[in-house]
Amino acid sequence: MAAAGSPSATLRRRDLCSRGIRLAGKMRSDVVDLLDAYVEQQGLDASASVAAVEGVPAAAAERWDEQTGTQRLLENLAAYRAFRALLGQMLEEQQEQLGEADAALGRALAAVLLQVSAFAYHLEELLRLESRGPPSEEGAGPPPLPHLSLFERKLRGLGVLRELAQWAVRSARDLRQLAKPSPGSSLAPSPADSP
Amino acid sequence: DSHNQYERVGADVTMKCGSMDWDAAVTWTANGTDIDESHLNGSYLILKNVDLTQSGQYYCYESSSWHLKYQTYLRVGTPPKEPVLMCRSNNYPKGFYCSWHLPTPTYIPNSFNISVIHGTREMVCEKDVFPKNRCHVRYLQVFSTVKYKVTLTVTNALGKDSTTLTFDEFAIVKPDPPEGVVAKPVPNNPRRLEVSWQNPSSWPDPESFPLKFFLRYRPLILDQWQHVELSDGTSHTITDAYAGKEYIIQVAAKENDIGTWSDWSVAVHATPWTEEPKHLTTEAQLTETTSASTSSFMPPPTTKICDKGAVVGSGAVAVCWTAGLVLAAYGVLFI
């Protein structure tokens, strides 16, 4: 086991995992509320199918239960960094709107953005414990938005929030896998990890 | 060579006796019984408005030689109606199963074909040996927002029909009910019951996908359930049970964020702890009390409506309805 080195590292890791799990749970709940508010405020159909949105990290994972701890952390971190930028963009667009309801939606977006940032921090810390360190963020911003109509932007926002809700569910379970005291939670691939 | 002939209920069926001419003299039998000539048109057998009872083995013989000229097994049935299909994941994140049945029987053999599409990908649904009308799919991806589309087609010799289900990955997650539910009285605690249970054995990874639970309980004599939701742990102590009453208790499970509640578990019964069984000696106790001629009167404990403290003194008017009659009777004795 690569990272389990010192007892304090193990404790710190466990602490970060359990706090991360709680944060992911709260984040999911808030994103679901935000989704409801967003759908209503933007006049969208909640059951509308949104095609995969470019630049939005998909939560879907192949062979999820076979992933190593490091893979989990790296994929999660890349996702939440992307969401941080995407939500930032959405917030900017939202702030251009006038009206009380829009302001309330803006506040809810900002609150979720804060949680996304906090979660990204947790992931960076967990990777630091790995002595691998988090990858740098150079050039990691979202692709420049093609010019979208207002409606297209709303649909894109729906896609972002839906995928984020899915990620929040996945992330809590990723951290639970990480917190397991078994070979599956080791942060470096080991021979015990058989497909 | 015999072959199967499938016809719809209510259809008119004409059977030719192989290559025999229309005016040949033939004898038809159905399930070993000669068929009356009134059903014949020349050598053709005419069956009008067939029903299920007319299914069976039909033979046609040349009358003079009794040579068998034609045989067929008639199977009367109906084309299939739209099948009923359901899909569920009780072992998330491993996979899900779909099961189906026909709303009405067709009386003839049916074959089923199922297709499972996830986005652009066709997935394999492996048929289960048992039960028969069921197959299971292994997830290739989890946490996907792309919907699944499952189409079931049922076909028989008389027709076909199909149905399609479209769903999100999370929507079909429903664990099996908790197992091993046990409820026990707590010694020296007349209002407590200790309940414990286990995760359903089909749930593959309760550590990563923890379940939360819903407990419901009520005394047998009441209809209203009490409910408790428990976000973790597989045990709970009921602290507000009615003393001496038998309870019925059930538990259900749900993944914390994903899917729906399981069905209720098998019901267990338990009665809270009671002191030395005073309540078993009803008549004897009553007799003892009256002969001792004390001024306080204890109504029989089987009187559910009253507290002990509600009835005082001989001759006093009791608040309690049921005990009041008894009290009045004894009151008369003591005045």
UniProtKB/TrEMBL annotation, chain A:
Belongs to the CNTF family. It comes from the Eukaryota. It is found in: Cytoplasm. CNTF is a survival factor for various neuronal cell types. Seems to prevent the degeneration of motor axons after axotomy. Its main location: cytoplasm. One of its GO terms (cellular component) is cytoplasm. It comes from Thalassarche chlororhynchos. The keyword Cytoplasm applies. One of its GO terms (biological process) is positive regulation of axon regeneration. Keywords: Cytoplasm, Developmental protein, Differentiation, Growth factor, Neurogenesis. The lineage of its organism: Eukaryota, Metazoa, Chordata, Craniata, Vertebrata. One of its GO terms (molecular function) is growth factor activity. This is Ciliary neurotrophic factor. InterPro entries: 4_helix_cytokine-like_core (IPR009079), Ciliary_neurotrophic_fac_CNTF (IPR000151). The gene is Cntf. It holds the Pfam family CNTF.
UniProtKB/TrEMBL annotation, chain B:
Pfam families: fn3. The chain crosses the membrane at residues 310-333. Keywords: Cell membrane, Disulfide bond, Glycoprotein, GPI-anchor, Immunoglobulin domain, Lipoprotein, Membrane, Receptor, Repeat, Signal, Transmembrane, Transmembrane helix. It is a lipid-anchor; GPI-anchor. The keyword Glycoprotein applies. SUPFAM superfamilies: Fibronectin type III, Immunoglobulin. GO terms for molecular function: ciliary neurotrophic factor receptor activity; interleukin-11 binding; interleukin-11 receptor activity. It is found in: Cell membrane. Residues 177-277 form the Fibronectin type-III domain. CDD domains: FN3. The keyword Transmembrane applies. InterPro entries: FN3_dom, FN3_sf, Hematopoietin_rcpt_L_F3_CS, Ig-like_dom, Ig-like_dom_sf, Ig-like_fold, Ig_sub2, Type-I_Cytokine_Rcpt. Residues 10-60 form the Ig-like domain. It comes from the Eukaryota. GO terms for biological process: positive regulation of cell population proliferation. Belongs to the type I cytokine receptor family. Type 3 subfamily. This is Ciliary neurotrophic factor receptor subunit alpha. It comes from Thalassarche chlororhynchos (Atlantic yellow-nosed albatross).
